[in-house]
Amino acid sequence: MGGAVMKVRVLLFARLRELAGGDVLELEMTEGATLGELWSRLQERFPSLRAFVHPPLMAVNQDYASPDRALAGEDEVAFFPPVSGG
C-alpha cells in the first residue's frame, strides 16, 4: 500500500513566495515521492502557483535537481521562479 509519511521543508523564493503567501512551508509527503509530485501538491494547495505551466527551478538540500528526483524525510526543497533579464 502507501509508504511511510515524511516531512519535507519547502522554501519558496521571489514571486513564488508572494503567490503562496509565505516563504517556508512544511509538507507531509509519502516517502519516495518525487520533486514533481511535491510541486503538484503545492499547486493544489496554492492554486495561484498554477500560473507556472512549467515547474520552476528546483533544488534539494542545496543541490539543483530534476522533477523526477525522489525525496527523503527531512529533505529541504527550494523552488525558484524563472528569471528573465536583459
Based on CA atoms alone, the radius of gyration comes out at 12 Å
Largest sheet: 5 strands, mixed
Number of domains: 1
CATH architecture: Roll
From the spread of the alpha carbons, the general shape counts as: globular
Give the helix/strand class: alpha+beta
Q: Helical residue percent?
A: 10-25%
Strand content: 25-35%
Number of helices: 2
CATH superfamily: Beta-grasp domain
The N- to C-terminal Cα distance equals: 50 Å
H/E topology pattern: EHEHEEE
Strand order of the largest sheet: 2-1-5-3-4
CATH topology: Ubiquitin-like (UB roll)
Q: What is the name of the CATH class? A: Alpha Beta
Q: Tell me, rounded to a whole number, the average pLDDT.
A: 90
Could you name the ranges where pLDDT drops below 50 across 5 or more consecutive residues? Answer: none
Q: How many extended strands? A: 5
Give your account of this protein's structure.
With 86 residues, this protein is α+β, with helices and mostly antiparallel strands. The chain has a single domain, classed as Ubiquitin-like (UB roll), CATH 3.10.20.30. Helix content is 20%, strand content 31%. It has 2 helices and 5 strands, in the order E-H-E-H-E-E-E. It has a 5-stranded mixed β-sheet. Strand 3 (57-60) and strand 4 (63-65) form a beta hairpin. The longest helix has 11 residues, at 35-45. The radius of gyration is 12 Å and the shape is globular. It starts with a strand and ends in a 6-residue tail after the last strand. The mean pLDDT is 90.
